[in-house]
Design brief:
- It is a single chain.
- By secondary structure, this protein is α+β, with helices and mostly antiparallel strands.
- It has three domains: 14-111; 116-226, Butyryl-CoA Dehydrogenase, subunit A, domain 2; 233-384, Butyryl-CoA Dehydrogenase, subunit A, domain 3.
- 49% of the residues lie in helices and 15% in strands.
- The protein has helices at residues 14-30, 35-43, 49-52, 60-74, 76-97, 104-111, 233-267, 281-309, 318-344, 354-363, 372-384, and strands at 116-119, 135-138, 144-153, 161-168, 177-184, 190-193, 207-216, 221-226, 269-270, 275-276.
- Strands 1, 2, 3, 4, 5, 6, 7 and 8 form an eight-stranded mixed beta sheet that branches. Strands 9-10 form a two-stranded antiparallel sheet.
- A hairpin with a 5-residue loop joins strand 2 and strand 3 (144-153).
Length: 389
């Protein structure tokens, strides 16, 4: 095996991973939710791992990153889907480890079996967390009404708590603010539109969610932030947890793809040269290039999760570091799946082939925040200051 840290431990024993791998193709072909995988993960306590082993001195981020990477090597869409629940529990833990207990209820409810999802991404909102196209209205009794559209809502079939945010216009010339809250499943005005039919990561069932005057009580708003870039701990926590765990998923794809490439080169022969293709210098070089890329991204990921658990104070350097990690992990996954497709020969270019599905899954990485363009803008701003400054 070329995969680092291949041992699954108690959360993901080898026989369970093989069951996940065997189901993945069927979920993908039918464009259905990973229901059996989800039930297995719940039974093993996988969704409470960041409650049981919290970020910080207990090493929760290291464990979760390793587990998600391993799960993704077997079933990437399953890993990406459950990622969204794990991100919220990671955010709650990262904040608590830094003295902010405002999301302690997330850990408590996750321990009781609630399933969290993200209602953050919006069509046309490239500001991500720093602005919102969802309108928040102040209701006469002091509550709030949320109206807008959320996309890429992973875990749509099973979530029980949806994290949402929206923009409340300032009164009497005051500043606009962003209000964060959770809404329970079944809340009036929440509509799940079953429109998920993507190229890859199909089993996540990340349907569109429409909010039509969804009522949120005033005391259910857990964070009020200004519009625009800010360094609130919640923003840091979401970026840190999301980018790290997403990177773990895509490096898991790279791990499995390199395994498949090694298997293909070990089994195929050149008729003309009368030797195994594993001896072909061009193909060896191609695979070595990707393996070196994976080694670099692996070191980057390990460094980030270690620093998150140890509360390293990287200040303003955290954001460019996090977006760079996610970008490098996705690039590595795409490069690894491309290389494995190439060395696998014509038989690998089948819709039902595992490496073909992995390649489609890897391409989905470019659509997660931060996009490549946004990531490069973040790094450039860290180096040179904002444009026009």
């Amino acid at each position: 095996m070329t995969t680092p840290d291949a041992a699954g431990g108690p959360l993901l024993p080898p026989e369970l991973l093989e069951r996940f791998r065997a189901r993945a193709a069927g979920y993908d072909a039918a464009n259905t939710f990973f229901a059996e995988d989800f039930a297995d993960l719940v039974e093993r306590g996988y969704l409470t791992q960041l409650v049981d082993v919290a970020p910080g001195d207990d090493g929760g981020m290291r464990q979760a990153s390793k587990a998600q990477r391993l799960l993704a090597s077997a079933a990437p869409a399953t890993a990406l889907g459950v990622n969204m629940h794990l991100v919220w529990t990671a955010v709650a833990g990262l904040l608590a480890d830094r003295g902010d207990t405002s999301l302690r209820f997330v850990q408590d409810e996750a321990a009781r079996g609630e399933v969290f999802a993200f209602g953050i991404s919006e069509p046309g909102n490239d500001a991500v967390l720093f602005d919102s196209r969802t309108r928040v209205d102040l209701l006469p009794d002091g509550g709030y009404g949320y109206t807008g559209t959320k996309v890429f809502t992973s875990l749509s079939p099973v979530w029980t708590r949806l994290g949402i945010f929206g923009k409340l216009k300032g009164r009497d010339g005051g500043p606009d603010t962003i209000l964060h809250a959770f809404v329970p499943r079944g809340t009036p005005g929440v509509e799940i539109v079953e429109d998920w039919d993507p190229l890859g990561m199909r089993a996540t069932q990340s349907h569109t969610t429409r909010l039509d005057g969804v009522r949120v009580e005033a005391d259910a708003v857990f964070r009020t932030l200004p519009v625009g870039p800010n360094r609130d701990l919640l923003v840091f926590g979401i970026f840190a947890a999301f980018e790290t765990l997403v990177a773990s998923v895509y490096l898991g794809i790279a791990d499995r793809s390199l395994d498949l490439a090694v298997q293909a080169l070990s089994q195929r022969r050149s008729h003309q040269a009368d030797r195994p293709l594993s001896q072909d210098p061009v193909l060896r070089d191609r695979l070595a290039t990707v393996a070196m890329q994976r080694t670099a991204a692996d070191a980057e990921l390990r460094g980030v999760v270690l620093d998150l658990d140890s509360r390293a104070d990287a200040g303003s350097a955290w954001f460019p570091r996090l977006v760079t990690l996610k970008t490098h992990a996705v690039e590595c996954a795409v490069a690894a799946t491309s290389a494995a497709l190439h060395v696998g020969g014509g038989s690998a270019f089948r819709a039902s082939a595992e490496i073909t599905r992995l390649h489609r899954d890897a391409l989905a990485g470019q659509f997660h925040p931060s996009t490549e363009e946004s990531a490069r803008a973040t790094v450039a701003t860290a180096l040179l200051g904002p444009p026009g400054s």
